[in-house]
Amino acid sequence: MTEPHWLRKTLTASVILAVAAGVLALAPSASASASPSTSAVPPPYAADLPDLGTPAVAFNRAGTPVATGVAVRGADGSLLYSPRSGSAFGAFQSLGGVIVGDPSVVVNSDGTHFFVRGTDDQVYTNTITPSGAVTGYSQVPGLTVTGDVEAIVPNLVPPTSVRIFARGTDGAVWTNNLNGGAWSGWSSLGGHATSDITATRTFVVPNDTIRVFIRGADHRVYVNRVSTSGVSGFEPLADLQVTSNIAVAEDAVFGGGFIAARGADHGLWTLNLYTVPYVWKPLGGTVTSDIAISFQANVTAYYVRGADDALYVNKATAPAALFRGFERIDGTVTGNPAAFGSGPNAPGTGFLLARLAGGSLGLNIEPSPSVLPPHKFGGYAPIPGPAVG
């Protein structure tokens, strides 16, 4: 019998916990009144989702988004972070602990903040301050989680604010907000997630709105709009059934206008949220991973892993324009891709990250992205440091 997605990750982390020297301090659970019951069996992720690790790029949302580093889960289960310097990434440093699944990382005026799921299914956070000091792990109490944590710095909020999302034991999406150094407490947004949670800033009124995307129990994509003035509730986005987590362009100032996912046909599909009624557009291909999107002026690129374990890119001048078809990027990868560009206002260097067969995270650079073939990626260069899990 194939174990469900959430169980495979938990079992892996439990084995690591028994042998690793450094583990997260397992703080006592907070009052159950703030979280769903922990007695129920967690609703599993469906086995049709890609069970691959995804690099978490740290974006500084002050002004034009700038990628400042990348976080991953190490082969020993620890949290690893590599700071970016220009077109390169420094060696991975271990921040310790044993985490389950992929980390989430955001940057604000207080530093680089990491959010992870511990082996006790509690949420933990760790921070690298602007001076370079590491605070160490602390628990965000009140919720037993059954999936990866998603973190975001909303638009037009105090510079130290962070909002996080996680899936509870009831399968619903829960959220917590950090403001002025204090957590507001977990509250349920409802829904029934059968995927990881994807959150992105949007340019809608009110201007601090966050779109939250999940795959529902019926395998359709659902969206919930969250702001300080209220919550819209989850609504389906047309009828396509998807078999991946939902992708947005994280390097865009507001990345929630276009989304992408793998369909039941294993092809790539994209949806334009600026046009109603919502219609999913097929882009074809054979996709074996989650999707990564990079959005720069005049160059929108969708990245997927193909059946031969190489990454493929499909580009257009804009997400709603004609896509030019898939081009193969030489090299074999064993994880989901992550991608970003120099910025949304002018096309610049394209950056592509994915785990390599040897256990390292590879960086591949396209100096001057264009929608016209051929692509100009120079090949994967392993980021030094401990092996990636």
List the defining traits of the structure above.
single chain, 389 residues, mainly beta, 5-stranded antiparallel beta sheet, 30 strands, 4% helix, 40% strand, globular, PLL-like beta propeller domain-containing protein, PLL-like_beta-prop, signal
Could you characterize the architecture of this molecule?
- InterPro entries: PLL-like_beta-prop.
- Residues 162-341 form the PLL-like beta propeller domain.
- The chain has 389 residues and is mainly beta.
- The chain has a single domain (5-26, 37-382), classed as Neuraminidase (6 Propeller).
- The protein is 4% helix and 40% strand.
- It has one helix at 5-19, and strands at 56-60, 66-73, 79-85, 88-89, 93-94, 99-108, 111-118, 123-128, 138-140, 150-152, 162-167, 173-179, 182-183, 187-190, 198-201, 210-215, 220-227, 230-231, 235-241, 258-262, 268-272, 280-284, 292-296, 299-305, 311-316, 326-329, 338-341, 350-355, 361-366, 381-382.
- Strands 1, 2, 3, 4 and 5 form a five-stranded antiparallel beta sheet that branches. Strands 10, 11, 12, 13 and 14 form a five-stranded antiparallel beta sheet that branches. Strands 15, 16, 17, 18 and 19 form a five-stranded antiparallel beta sheet that branches.
- The radius of gyration is 19 Å and the shape is globular.
- It starts with a helix and ends in a 7-residue tail after the last strand.
Task: Please give the structural blueprint.
Blueprint: H1 5-19, E1 56-60, E2 66-73, E3 79-85, E4 88-89, E5 93-94, E6 99-108, E7 111-118, E8 123-128, E9 138-140, E10 150-152, E11 162-167, E12 173-179, E13 182-183, E14 187-190, E15 198-201, E16 210-215, E17 220-227, E18 230-231, E19 235-241, E20 258-262, E21 268-272, E22 280-284, E23 292-296, E24 299-305, E25 311-316, E26 326-329, E27 338-341, E28 350-355, E29 361-366, E30 381-382
